[in-house]
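Entry for the shared binder. Reason: the reviewer on the internal report wants the predicted structure included alongside the sequence.
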Amino acid sequence: MNKLLFRTRIKFCGFTRAGDVRLASELGVDAVGFIFSPDSPRRVHPTEARAMRNAMAPLVDAVALFQDNDVEEIREVIKQVRPTLLQFHGGEDDAFCRGFGVPYMKAVAMQDEAVDARALHTRYPGAAGFLLDSHAPGMGGGTGRVFDWSRIPAGLNKPFVVAGGLRPENVFDAVLATLPWGVDVASGIESEPGIKDGDKMRRFVEEVRRADCHTESEPASRQPA
């Protein structure tokens, strides 16, 4: 793949403040994530997410993240927030994920057993893509831990997004090592859970774009100032 012709998509996740959503949009991110997982410190109410969605710029996608939420709660989020993509982190099967009439992405735990691409496609044929995260099975993201990028299975025929422990200091290397469709970050751009740091957000975007423009003749890492 010619990196000069490819743009890595960026998703910032776990927003709790409209001002942070507005800044993310201005920085050029592709998607903004709102978390409705019951145990997440970044969990927001649908009415809060709806207000933050109004701060989003045009052409930025809203993503709603769930983890074993009940059907009625998910339907209420869809009604109020109008997400363009759903993201499931729990034990949901393909039929459940497809049942809401909104494209979905399934999170895949990358910490323990090896992941088989063919089995993943068979288990989630309706998925628009997969989010490869460092969380343990049955747990949500936002742990701040990096998984071994070399364990990404070959043969993934759908877009995949790399998450888990990404931050401005390592996302350049992550993009070059994995050539993902996109990258997803929450804790790596925060001062505390749910509170985004504007400088970290800006530097994260800059590093992804730097990786997209990287050529083999250039040094892989930025030299210290």
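Summary line for the report: Residues 10 and 29 are 5 Å apart (CA to CA).
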